[in-house]
Prior knowledge:
51% of the residues lie in helices and 7% in strands. It has helices at residues 30-44, 54-61, 65-75, 111-115, 124-129, 132-150, 159-184, 195-205, 232-245, 269-288, 294-311, 318-330, 332-343, and strands at residues 81-87, 97-100, 117-123, 209-210, 217-218, 265-266, 314-315.
Amino acid sequence: MLREQPLPVVGRNERNRRKGPSMNEGPIRADEIQSYLALLHGSLGGSRAPVSPTKLREFYDRQNYTGMVKLIRDGMKLDLRVRVALVNHGGPDRTPAWVERPDPFPRNGTPEFKRAVVTVFLRKSFLLKYKFEHVVMAIAHELSHIVLFRIRHPLEEVEVAVDLTAMLLGYSEFYFIGFELLRTERLGSLGYLTGNEIRYAAGVLGWPIEKPADSVRVKKRFIPTLSSIHTVGVAILIVIGLTLAGSNLFNHAPVEERPSTGKGTRLNADQIRYCLSEDIRISGGRSVLNRYQPSAVERFNVMVKDFNDRCSNFQYRASDLQTVKSEVEANRELLWAAGARAYGTGYPNDQ
């Protein structure tokens, strides 16, 4: 069985984490964005082509928000029932949209999953004030939570990663145009990424955004861009990992499914793949973790606890373990590098 040990914090008092972007552009959280995208690609596969706005615009112009939600649901291949509620009150404070789901969420592919009902709540004041792109952003974000919940992904509650999931699934252009409209029309803030971070993430995904004076275009580029990495050793490992993995990181990555918590659970091949891969990623993070950075240590230990709850005691078929283990070992360098980036870096404001 697999088990990891948490780490203590070395010195210094806890500092506040970065809560989210403001309208004032700050430094791009490049390492954080790249590490999240690497983990998302490992579970969801390659990035998808930009979603056409035509049909969504037709629904929006007719105020058919249920049609918008169902169209986005179908595009994300969520085979479950969805309800839409337009509300004046309730929900998290100052949140334009939120989603309610069964808890625990049924496992993907099961009859319970197909019978599950998810409710997307949209605040009426938000629909009246904000624009088409903002409504698409809000719906895509909430349904991206469901995409991650259905595979029990470790980033399912990490809001920045959820925005990146929506972008990976084809909504980058809506995010960028939406942010530009927020800025030019002084509508306030929405989402968890800045405009520069949206453009940066789109480039990493292979769909860089070009911004002419009077329009926004998305252009396909087949090689994702990577920024320089502060730690030379990590940079070398990432280059090695990407070289060995080729295009698999962004196109044909094996599926990982996060198992449920508990002891003695029988895991399928996808769940075994998650546990073996996560063990390597945690090792990569542990090797470069800044133990003087309380928030980084805390984030690392949260992931270790989650891993131990799911992967420290399980049953399996010997044939599944043998097959998956060889697959995972073939990608060890890439997984180690992804872990180093995901768990071994802190937040910009902690430096």
